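Supplementary material to the annual report.
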Amino acid sequence: MLGDGIIKGLAETARNFFGSYVDKERLTTVQYPEERLPQIEGTRDFPFLVYDGDDWEKGLRCVSCHICEKECPPKCIFIEKSKDKKPDAVGKLQFYPVRFDIDVSVCMSCQICVEVCPFDAIKMDVEFELSSDDRFGGLLHHKDKLAKSNEYYHKIHPTEAAAVDAALAEEREKEKEKQKQAALAAAAAAAAKAAAAPASAPAAHVPVPAPGTNTDTSAKEETK
Amino acid sequence: MPEMIDQIFVLLKQWIMGYVPSGLQPLCSAILSVLPILVVFPLLFAITTVLERKGLGRMQNRYGPNRAGPWGILQPAADGIKSLTKEDIVPRSADHLVHLLAPILIVIASFLVYSVVPVGRNMVVVDLNAGVLFFFAIGSMVELAVFMAGWSSRSKYSLLGAMRAIAQMISYEMPMVLSGVVAIMAAGSLSTVTIVNMQAGYTGIWPHWYLFTPWGITGYILFMIAATAESNRCPFDMPEGESEIIAGYFIEYSGFKFALFFVAEYLGMMASSAMAITLFLGGWAAPFSFLTWIPSWFWFFAKLILMLMVFIWIRGTLPRLRMDQLMNFGWKFMLPLSLINIVSAGLWHYLPSGFTRWSVISLLLLLSCFLLSRNLRRNKWFQERTYRFAS
Amino acid sequence: MSVLTEVSIDTISQPANDHLHGDLLEISMGPHHPSTHGVFRMNIVLDGERVVKLKPVFGYLHRNHEKIAEHETYLGSMPYTDRLDYICSITNNWAYALAVEKLAGIPVPERAEYLRVITGELTRLQNHAGLIGFLLQDMGASGTPLMYAFREREKILDLFEALTGSRMMCNYMRFGGCRRDLPSGWMEHAQKVVDGFPRFLDEFERLLRTNEILMARTQGIGIVTREQAINAGISGPMARASGVNYDLRKVDKYGIYDRFSFRVPLGEHGDVYDRYMMRLLEMRESIEILKQAMRDLPSGPIMDPNTKIRNFRPKAGEAYGRIEAPKGELGFYLISDGGPNPYRYRVRPPSLINLTLLEQMCLGHNVSDVVIILGSVDIVLGEVDR
Amino acid sequence: MNLEEIKSQIEANVPGCSLEILPNASPSGQHSLLVDPEHALTVASFLRDGASPHFDYCSNVTGIDWPLKETSSKQKTKKIVDGVEKEVEELVKISTGNYLEVVYHLFSQENRQGPLVLRMRTGDRAERVHLPSLTPVWRSAEFQEREVYDLFGIVFDGHPDLRRLLMWEDFTDHPMRKDYVDPDDYEYEPTAHDEVLRRTQAHYAAQEALSGAEEAR
Amino acid sequence: MTNHMYLPVIVLLIAGAAFAIGPLALAWVWAKKFSPQKAGPTKNAIYECGLESNGDAWIKFKPGYYLYAIIFLIFDVEAVFLLPFAVAFGGFTVAESVSMLVFLLLLVEGLVWAWQKNVLSWT
Amino acid sequence: MVATSLQELYNWGRKSSIWPLNFGLACCAIEMIATTMARYDLARFGAEVFRPSPRQADLMIVAGTVTKKMAPQVVRLYNQMAEPKYVISMGACAISGGPFKQGYNVLKGIDRYIPVDVFIPGCPPRPEALLDAFLMLQRKIDEQQLTGPGRPRHLQEEQPSEFVVPQYGQHDLTPTRNDAIWHAPLVNISNAGPNESGRD
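Predicted assembly:
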């Protein structure tokens, strides 16, 4: 009979129509600004820089090795390496980025920077409400905007962050062990040489510059 | 008391008329009759658009507009303000006058047809003794306006839309008129008021609607299909066929001119529904004898909204036909069937009432429906298929 | 200068000087058109509404993928492949990874192969669901089938997001494995989605499979015969709708596809309806594969331990690797000169080649048919123009 | 399927054609067959209809640009220097390339075999860029050959509709060639790198010269 | 009464026209007062999918379309005859009805003829 | 008083009824479609009426890569839209060329030719990000003045409503940008020298 397929279809839409009043499956809308979908843990949007401790400038894990900049497929990262070294959150002397820009208007959220970073310094954020009406200022994120604390990282990607922390701790442990060994060896060597010459000051005692003296002065000047 | 409420608008008008000097009485009476139409139907149009958008939303597992005003009911107001303040663009090469006249004409035509629709007991603008004829005649003006719009825009897509529109509308004009003829035969009058009055009686609790006869239901379905095509609604929305010819005949219209086409489309849809109600669903008559205490105008609008919802429902479900299929369906199925329907309505008149009459006419109609649809499906490209699998 | 000079009306022989013919109408459909699936353009010459000539015009989304890839490292091209056929990023990743693996001779651990099959078949599900939704949208159904299709698609996208981090641009595969192992709870969630999918298919079939309008609109439209399909290099569901029994999952048995039992649906007529039904039937087969793969998923590493991701330099040579992407045969042809970038990087786009017969399919049909024929080919412009 | 066998099959059936097997060092082992352009169409028809297996399915067509590449290596040669034969190390320039190449990947759907990689080379990269079109044999080559024509500039004789595929008609370059120079439109790049940066700088210098009012910080 | 019969229709006609023209006039006033109309060569060109339109849309369109109009005319005339017949039908004798049936059949024959001639096949 | 309420009404009407142009270019278009679908439901804001004709649309969502071949068409479509009209540049490609900006056929940002109201970064942006941008556009509309010198472009007589449509050239589009609307900041070249330390 002409029309039975049509009637079957009509029945289906009617079922959905009435179902939408009783069944959550048939009313899937999440009313965005008020309601939000539960955040999925693995989500990635744009990269951010992780820092340890409280001071974002001091605690940045980034040592500006330029690996992410080189590997970034669309080349949206721009790093300027410092000329001097500063102690990081655990007190180790490191180079640091004088300038670390990510152009989110170019970034393709591919996560390759995260993958290649040997220092776990760059991670993916879940923040997506970055709309702006300022094409040049609003979408070029500088170091200050990119730096986010490790706690924040734990909040958005708990499992991953825990794994990263464990790995870092292990590495530090190893590092410490190595340093200890080195120190022991050095001590032994020093002891052997003790008679010959007085021990020179170990490298870890370089005076620390006052915090905030050399901030990202250049970063802000670039765009207007 | 029920009569009081039923006739409240009529009484209101009479009360006002009492204060009007007799010289102005005809004019005032006319204005008072026309005013409600100008208020009620555009309002109904606004409600329908909200209903449609929210209803479609619900069919599609979502809410639909719910931000403008409480529950989104002010959405049409926002759309209206936006349309009013939107720039009006007329293509350079277009025929400016015709381009301007088309939306005006289509709205006029859409309003005029309401003058013969009885929306309640004693509630009709003018009881023309050729009311149905008037309805169809004025309804054809819409076709003209649509063609004017499409042709004057001088865009290729609008030209295609206009060509489709004119072909489609004249093809479905015939089944629409002919399927209405059966009701006229039964009522013996072209006056819409008489036709409704003829259906106002009851047998037991059942009303004397023409819908409840074999030729009536056939006529009703044919009329509704034709009305869908006449008002360019899905699945017959070829003249504006969004996915094919972009926006069809009104592709070059912006601002309020475009809104007027929108208004006219819905007014046309409501007018066709109103005529279907008048011809087959007993107009303002209550569906059961024990419900007659509810005012007649309520029943009319209840039926109207119900039918609009069916339109929306269909729109939410069906894909569009193709032009040639539409024409085939119109000329090779609708037209012959409506002619047969006229014959069977005639036979009905001469056969003795009772079960025989029912079964003979039903059989005749079903058989012809079956044969005609088989003819439509004769094409080898119209079958369910089974598929083979390679492993 | 007009871009429309490409098809000139003079070059078309006017139909017989018959009083039943008017002037020909030359129309450009696209690049902005609601149903050209992006920025595709067809120059159409119409006699009334009948198509007498149709020339596709490409390039409105030519994003220089191949040229950019010649400047990128092998790893750096991986996220770009996501954006080829942007609906099925995972299968693109897979094809590219496969080509690189062939080029450099990299083995893939078993668990990674299973993960590839699972994500790849999920991709096929969501692509086909989306396609039939779009096809019906082109046919004029006002959104409802598309909404239902996207309702299901969102569920699969949630799975992708949980696994790969992104809804559409998954960037999931690496040469020698996959990027990330399953997070906890993913498998149960996926199981639920896969088990619920047939219900959606049933619903969809009730909604439209036997619909008279759908049958009338799609049957006998845009016919491609078996011989034409093979000669024109048509692949994927579109070829199978014409009865070509050529599914690379069966032919090449790449990855671990020889371990699963599934059937390949074949059409007879090669018209739009067959292509539509191929997608519906293939989804059911994909569900079968998914069930088997999820049942058999072994544990183990997901990356080949000897493969470097950074500073990856394959030996000089070339390789052509191909997979059965949802749209057809997706191939990558790579030439290495020993450097960190491919010397030549070529994508064999199924969408583009499936369009070869577009004109032939459309001739003699209506404008309305053109959009559904195009819809049934299942093109994605990112891949057509690259 | 063996490439040698196919080669001998073709040689037996297409007289006068010169074929060469180009080895492929990669683990994929997809060696290719270099066909001379004069006989390519005959060879193609034979491969489709006469060869066993029938290569009825041409999957992929693409072009490759091999610009002139001069490598110099030191070679020891014997030379008579001052009347005495000496072994002298000499810089020998080896030039390779300087041609455009088209590659066809053929498969047999019937026997499910492949790929057979067919190659053709042009005479040089400037004038002698004509090659026979294989579209008459495999329709699937139609768009792909157009693409090669567009992006590499190889002219396919016998192609039914050879126009640019991806770029616009008035475009004069062939962007996939290795020596293609991109248009200079990087006026502003917040995170400019390498080549882009150099071009941006050049651009800005030029701009400053034009309008001195702009303050270059 | 009869001379006022069509007065409401005329009023409705005027009102309908006002309903259309009123907002258009309002929009015009708005444009004059606040939001200037900005015509331009591209803006007021014909829309064709974002390209410049090539060739005119006002062509000699396929005459096949007009055949439908002719057939429509025939049947419209039929309807004009049918309507009075329908009104008077209640009082007809069988013979009168049969004569009307003959008239109908003649038209049906015309339809069948057109059908056979493939005039009703839309291409 | 009257003017204020008129302005409020005007802004409310415009912002509650933004009809986007049915216009998708690439990947982002799929997310744009997803935004209109049941889960995100752009219709709640009255914006599900995707008009296929630019005459009836208010908002152009440039969703995806604008190639040089497509740019003239995009500008022409924008020109053919009726005022007031808004543009959302959705996704990295539309803003700056994004990942494909090094391609020879990719336009480095649609704002070179037409004025853009809101930029959404992301590749592609999540549907929520589009909703967020949409809300931002609504806020922007809400703040617009009906009179006075601060009134938006479309209310000012002297401001253009259509922009130069670029032409296909032999190597590139001509002009490569519309200087009237596109003002790039100058790069601090000395700071961004190519041969700095740590780069290899």
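The longest strand of chain F covers residues 59-63.
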